[in-house]
Amino acid sequence: MPTPTHQLELPALYGSSPLGFLAALGTLHLTTHLLDEAPRLSWSGPDAPAVLHTHQPFTHQALARLLATQLPTQPDKDPLAVAPGILDQPRHPEPGSPNDPLQMPIDEALTQLRRHAEAERDHDDNRAHWFTSLINTLSLTPGKSDKSALPKNKSAIHGTLYTRTTPYFGRSGQMTLPNNWTKAAQHCLKDPTHLHAALIRWQRVDDYAGANLDHLSTGDAHMVSHGKATQQGVPGATWLALHGFTAFRLTGNTNRPQATSWDTTNHAFTWPIWHQPHTTTTLATLLEHPDTRNHTPNPTRLHNLGITALYTAPRTRLPYGDGPLEPGHPIPMQPGRLRNSKPTATHRTTLKQEAG
Predict the structure, then answer these.
(1) Please, are residues 55 and 6 in contact by the beta-carbon 8 Å criterion?
(2) 314/323 Cα distance (integer angstroms)
(3) What is the DSSP code string of 309-352?
(4) Count of beta carbons in the 10 Å neighbourhood of residue 184
(5) Within 13 Å of residue 221, how many CA atoms lie on the same side as its CB?
(6) What letter does residue 276 receive in the DSSP assignment?
(7) What is the pLDDT of residues 164-189, one digit of tens each?
(8) How far apart are CA 212 and CA 225, in angstroms?
(9) Tens of pLDDT along 230-285?
């Protein structure tokens, strides 16, 4: 694969911010879908912006226009244009079913997954990948009526079991993954400058909640000029970040869900920043490497992987559900070993071998 020759720094997408990091991943995945030659992603350094590497030159305006081609024409009907038919699910009518339509009975989910997998084999369709990055068919939860009706000493295994969704989406109140995707897309369609702003300087919108990926979207009264608490989300960055969810593989066993880069013990998102440019394929290998999830990171091993920093952002809690992710906190490592370090041949060999 030829090496990209053009670089575009994305000043608003800082690696130390969970929303910025996810939006950079979404940008990489969307441009991979749109360009003939695979783009790559790297970072200017720890606590620094993302850099998109492409085979053709882009300005921020041109990149924003390219990304905008993936906005849905009717977001209220199907908000995921890159993989139609995933987010337009109706809520299951059975009493006690979850509010989010992506939490569907397991039999229905497996039927859909088989259909998407067959389309992937026969027609190189991408919907199986999107389905499994948003809907976890390997870890199940009982419906509300199943929980309340069961005696304390009985298992819920005999009731209707529903799929879980990606832990990267924090659900509060009546929020669902499809309606969050819809609202972000609607804002970007109404004002096309949101995608350009997502790349260079975030544009916050009053009364837009985002998808619980950004702690500043909570809009405390002391943070706004009119002195009243209000939601202040970033529609463009949120829309890109939702597409970044496809970078994280969902696994688990019945009642213990797992996801790449998600710490189920602390309910925290933990992610690396790297120097060497990565495609979506090699990035998947890097994100799933055991050393990126180590609570006591080994600086030498991380250096050999080209990693320059590790961050973590726990999920906050609200009285009515999940809260936004906290700001990214750097995970302490041995001083002077990683900052501004460059990758070695060991890093390139390691990732090549692990990617197969």
Answers:
(1) yes
(2) 10
(3) EEEEEEEEEETTEEEEEPPPEEPP--TTSSTT----HHHHHHHH
(4) 28
(5) 3
(6) S
(7) 999 999 888 788 999 999 999 999 99
(8) 22
(9) 788 999 999 999 999 999 999 988 778 999 999 988 899 999 999 999 999 999 99
